């Protein structure tokens, strides 16, 4: 299992996950959100304390994610203290789970070397300029994330170690054939139902809302009626890809560059080889003796392909007479590779070579010597490289000048725009979460809403959107957040209160009618008395859009009815209406034969996710976990 774990940490999925984690933290502008820390930890797991600083980072990142997800509605959501308390508790739970995973990984002996951490950092695109790792950029970004190099490396090491654990659990999980068939059968199950909706509109005439109720609701819930803070922004944008090289790339420059970079355009030597493998996993001494006997047979004139087909333990290549096709350096086991490239001429056969797979006898069947690609073959690539380099050079020259002028002429973008050779762009009055690209990243929007830019109306510093892509912004107009007047929202409040009262009345009425249904009345009789329609669905599927989602969900929760019987339920719909559901029958198909690969993968992933969550729950159940009451001031 440990091998699976270590292999999993090297896979593309793990690297992508880690890259996204780091990028999301960077873009969230964690440093700007960090508040004061205290000695009181937010949680303690088997004696390991989770600090307020660590919580602040994770909470700020989650808050930024929610702001991006909900846009301008986030202000209303954040005004609900109960909801934000749930968010904070969810962040604590996540940190507890991470610590449990870290401790389990340590117990299993999982580790990530310094070299692996370094390699991961160097390969992260967010730390690169022009496709190359930049140490200056690396330091700049991690400081924005409130990390020092040592603490960031340890943070990344922890993330990579946990990724090993996740990869191991997901990578080693499997579903038995009968479980797979049962899952598919349940997914494909259909149900026959009757249902009737009791709309709150039926009791609207019985509802009245007074002006006093509207006023009271407005006074108690003013945070719901906040007009968001608005800004109109002027900005300039500079991208390397939009620039033209200062001078066209000449043929002479291309040839000079080709000669300088010629080693990069060498096609390495390739060799085509065949081999005979003797497996040594059970008895190495016997395997070596067998290999020596095969070599003697070949030296006495036996046909290599025939012997490989008969005696090689590499079943795949044996069918091809031992052929392994073309190989290059760093493709094979080092011992095998050294022996293969040591053969001097086509047709030569090696001595017995030992590798981690067993004992090999190798035959050289063809050679393609190392050769350089011609200038004509790579000219277009060379031109693209030189033009890109020239654009990047021009970009950084302009960026330096833009930074100087934006600071020196802080009351206008005109001089900086002329130096950049771009036009000044503008937005209308928009909220923080409605800013257009490229201003809608958290780092840039946070800068726009700083007091310096809002009150002093000065140019920002150069803000990086992406590598070789910058903006400079200034606020043209600002409207502070304010409570909307009662006159503007009174109709909205009246409608809301009316709906709430109607929903309460219809729920009470529905409960009374449901008792009649359970007492022996039929759904048709109740529907007729209330002048509502009974609808039938003969083959309701789990993911059906023919009925409201709450009805479909409840229908599949009901137990299978007996012969000539039904099961019923009362459902509260999301819009405040109520509904009666009567389950008449259940049809579960028989699943046999070959299962679709994509379906199998989806079910296996679902099982793996469920099992992993159960693993975390089991870890917490047998651990000593303390969660002191959170004392976190909501950061606006």
Task: Describe the protein's architecture and organization.
Helix 1 crosses helix 9. It is built from 24 helices and 22 strands. The chain starts with a helix and ends in a 10-residue tail after the last strand. The radius of gyration is 34 Å and the shape is extended. Strand 16 and strand 17 form a beta hairpin. It has 636 residues and is an alpha+beta fold. Strands 7, 14, 15, 16 and 17 form a five-stranded antiparallel β-sheet that branches. 50% of the residues lie in helices and 17% in strands.
Helix content: 40-55%
Radius of gyration: 34 Å
Rounded mean pLDDT score: 83
> What is the end-to-end distance?
46 Å
- Which structural class do the helices and strands define? alpha+beta
Number of strands: 22
Number of helices: 24
Concise overview:
This protein is of the alpha+beta class and 636 residues long.
């Amino acid at each position: 299992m440990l091998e699976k774990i270590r292999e999993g940490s090297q896979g593309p999925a793990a690297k992508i996950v880690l890259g996204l984690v780091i990028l999301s933290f960077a873009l969230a502008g964690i440093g700007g959100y960090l508040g004061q820390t205290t000695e009181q930890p937010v949680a303690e797991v088997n004696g390991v304390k989770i600090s307020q600083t660590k919580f602040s980072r994770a909470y700020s990142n989650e808050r930024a994610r929610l702001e991006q997800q909900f846009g301008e509605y986030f202000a209303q959501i954040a005004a609900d203290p109960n909801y934000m308390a749930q968010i904070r508790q969810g962040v604590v739970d996540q940190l507890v789970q991470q610590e449990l995973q870290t401790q389990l990984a340590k117990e299993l002996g999982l580790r990530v070397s310094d070299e692996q951490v370094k390699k991961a950092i160097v390969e992260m695109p967010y730390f690169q300029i022009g496709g190359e790792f930049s140490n200056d950029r690396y330091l700049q970004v991690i400081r924005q994330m409130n990390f020092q190099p040592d603490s960031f490396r340890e943070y990344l090491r922890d993330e990579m170690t946990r990724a090993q654990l996740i990869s191991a659990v997901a990578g080693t999980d499997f579903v038995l054939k009968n479980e797979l068939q049962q899952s598919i059968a349940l997914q494909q199950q259909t149900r026959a139902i009757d249902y009737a909706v009791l709309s709150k509109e039926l009791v609207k005439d019985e509802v009245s809302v007074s002006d006093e109720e509207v006023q009271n609701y407005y006074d108690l819930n003013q945070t719901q009626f906040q007009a968001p803070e608005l800004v109109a922004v002027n900005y300039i944008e500079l991208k390397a890809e939009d620039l033209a090289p200062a001078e066209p790339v000449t043929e002479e420059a291309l040839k000079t560059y080709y000669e300088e970079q010629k080693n990069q355009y060498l096609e390495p030597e390739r060799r085509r080889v065949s081999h005979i493998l003797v497996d040594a996993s059970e008895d190495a001494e016997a395997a070596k003796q067998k290999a020596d006997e095969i070599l003697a047979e070949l030296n006495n004139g036996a046909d290599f392909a025939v012997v490989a087909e008969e005696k090689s333990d590499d079943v795949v290549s044996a069918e091809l007479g031992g052929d392994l096709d073309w190989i290059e350096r760093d493709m094979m086991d080092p011992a095998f590779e050294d022996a293969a490239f040591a053969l001097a001429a086509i047709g030569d056969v090696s001595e017995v070579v030992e590798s981690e797979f067993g004992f090999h006898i190798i035959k050289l069947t063809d050679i393609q010597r190392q050769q350089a690609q011609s200038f004509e073959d790579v000219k277009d690539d060379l031109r693209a490289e030189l033009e890109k380099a020239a654009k990047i050079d021009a970009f950084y020259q302009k960026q330096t000048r833009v930074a100087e002028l934006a600071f020196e002429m802080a009351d206008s973008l005109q001089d900086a725009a002329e130096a950049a050779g771009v036009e000044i762009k503008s937005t209308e009055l928009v909220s923080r979460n409605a800013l257009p690209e490229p201003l809608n990243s958290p780092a840039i929007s946070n800068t726009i809403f700083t007091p310096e830019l809002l009150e002093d109306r000065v140019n920002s510093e150069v803000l990086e959107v992406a590598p070789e892509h910058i903006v400079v912004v200034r606020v043209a107009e600002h409207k502070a957040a304010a409570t909307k007047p009662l006159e503007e929202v009174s109709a909205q409040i009246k409608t809301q209160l009316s709906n709430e009262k109607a929903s309460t009345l219809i729920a009470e009425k529905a409960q009374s009618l449901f008792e009649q249904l359970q007492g022996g009345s039929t759904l048709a009789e109740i529907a007729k008395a209330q002048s509502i329609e009974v609808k039938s669905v003969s083959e309701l599927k789990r993911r059906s859009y023919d009925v409201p989602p709450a009805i479909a969900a409840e229908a599949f929760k009901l137990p299978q009815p007996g012969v000539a019987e039904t099961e019923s339920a009362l459902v509260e719909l999301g819009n405040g209406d109520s509904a009666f559901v009567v389950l008449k029958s259940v049809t579960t198909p028989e699943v046999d034969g070959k299962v679709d690969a994509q379906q199998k993968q989806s079910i296996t992933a679902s099982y793996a996710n469920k099992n992993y969550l159960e693993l975390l729950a089991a870890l917490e159940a047998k651990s000593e976990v303390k969660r002191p009451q959170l004392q976190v001031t909501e950061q606006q």
